[in-house]
Glycosyltransferase RgtA/B/C/D-like domain-containing protein
Amino acid sequence: MGIRMWGETDVRRARTAVLVAATAGLLTRMIIAANSPGPADVRIFAGFAKAITGYGPVRVYAHPLPGLPVYNHPPLAGWMLLGLDRLTELGFSFATLIRVPASAADFACAVLVFEIVRRRATVRTAMLCGTGVAVSPVLIATSGYHGNTDAVAVAFALAAAHLLADRKAPLAAGVAAALSISVKFIPVVVIPALFVAALRGGRPVLVRFTAGFAGVTALVWGPALLTVPMDLVHNVLEYAGGSYRLWGLVRFADVLGLPEPVIAFMQGGGHFLFVLVCVAAGVRLAWLRPAEAPGVVAVTLGLLLLLSTASGLQYLTWAAAGMFVLGPVEGFAYSAVVGLVAVLGYSGRSAVRWSEPVLYLGAAGWLVLAAGLLTGARRILATPPDTAPTERARVSAPRTEFRSCSTVD
């Protein structure tokens, strides 16, 4: 008996299994997208796309959009909507097209999670986690039915961490980080942590990461910042989310009967305090364990959802893939409970009016998320600070009959 190291054949087989599961998941999402009208957001995005076609993806921030909510999406989302609207002229259904980016992002996340986890655990665990992302009910429900851009932003954020920590490609990591906040501003909470991880890698790494990030940010955000700066800031940077009380802290505050001014403060200016907590936690973890950048991103995005004072079923995707980065138990537990919230929520009369059972399930999902973040953060801090991910993967290989060895990569 001895230590068996997973060979390249085992890795290829596991990767193929994840690709098959991700492909099946993508087809499932697209079948849902092609055969369901989706929530109100689908029609709202269609309205945004028509407005962008008329005003342009830059000037749209400066124009009132009658019958539509505030256009709070970063510049890259505008270019995406412009492209989707052009495709409708070829006969494609916008209601189906708007759900393609998120569904494709889930496919990418399944592969990303596999590649991230296999460097830190056994290949079997990595295969389980990658497959879990592919079949996650919360991701299938939100990407296949809802079709917002949250999953796309999460995919870019995890890709940035993977490229930085595992692929040693800081320039590409900076590009991915900039793209993440250019399609949805939510991952801005992980950007400081990524910069800290790059800093801990040495000056050349930091310079390359900064160059990639700054270049794409200037290219994507520059035109709007130069043309309609105040409108962009008001619509996107200062957007605090909806005022519904369905999830998390505001839900608990409402149930406990806290004064209305307190809840209003939490959903208003006070929400920036919770954002700062998330940023500080991510920066601290990145400083202590820069090699664990993917896990740091997962914890930070999950903490943002945990402390979020806005409610939306699509927001549940912020933590879905990341929880599998933290571990299979955390990932499957979160996906199972919160997936049920998403399925029942979307099956109701309105995605923003949850029934009493769904509200209780949401509270249970919040607790599962809290527990998963705690165990995940502890696992990150328990890793030796100077040990590369591939070395830990070799140490954690299962004890079985001895076979010829090869490196994990």
About this structure: The first helix runs from residue 8 to 34. Residues 397-409 have pLDDT under 50 and may be disordered. DSSP finds 20 helices and two strands in the chain.
